[in-house]
Write a structure and sequence with these properties.
This protein is mostly helical. The chain has one domain. About 65% of the residues lie in helices and about 0% in strands. It is built from five helices and no strands. The longest helix is centred in the N-terminal third of the chain and has 28 residues. The protein is globular, with a radius of gyration of 16 Å. The protein starts with 7 loop residues before the first helix and ends in a 5-residue tail after the last helix.
Length: about 140
């Protein structure tokens, strides 16, 4: 029996839960942009070849891969960079770079750092990577 307060098994399961919930929320941004479900009025008529269309593809494909935990580390790394770029392009450009609550950039920052954590830690016990023997 381990003398640590939280076992390694519990930690890797918690990591999986964090990955699954985050991916599910992120995936919804992609489905809203590309399929109109859930409906978000500002995405009506979105062109696939636009910056927002490409963002939707990254959100859909990256979110789906992270949801099942396939290629978790590289996908999370790419999505972390994507969200950092999204913050600086869409939110920080509105001003208040270091006060994200004033430029509505909190969600982009949270996604960025959760994805960076997953890139470092792996997909956890409940992932396709773990089933393939490729998880941390």
């Amino acid at each position: 029996m381990s003398s640590t307060l939280i076992s390694a098994t519990t930690t890797t399961r918690a990591l999986s839960l964090l990955r699954i919930v985050t991916a599910f929320l992120f995936l919804q941004h992609g489905t809203a942009k590309l399929f109109g479900s859930p409906h978000v009025a500002m995405f009506d008529g979105l062109q696939l070849a636009s910056l927002m269309g490409v963002a939707g593809v990254l959100e859909l494909v990256g979110g789906a891969l992270l949801l099942v935990g396939l290629f978790s580390r590289p996908v999370a790394f790419v999505l972390s960079g994507f969200m950092a770029a999204a913050y600086f392009m869409a939110h920080a450009s509105q001003g208040h770079v270091f006060v994200p609550i004033l430029n509505q950039g909190e969600l982009a920052i949270m996604f960025c750092f959760v994805f960076l954590f997953i890139a470092a830690a792996g997909g956890g016990a409940w992932s396709a990577d773990a089933a393939r023997g490729k998880a941390a």
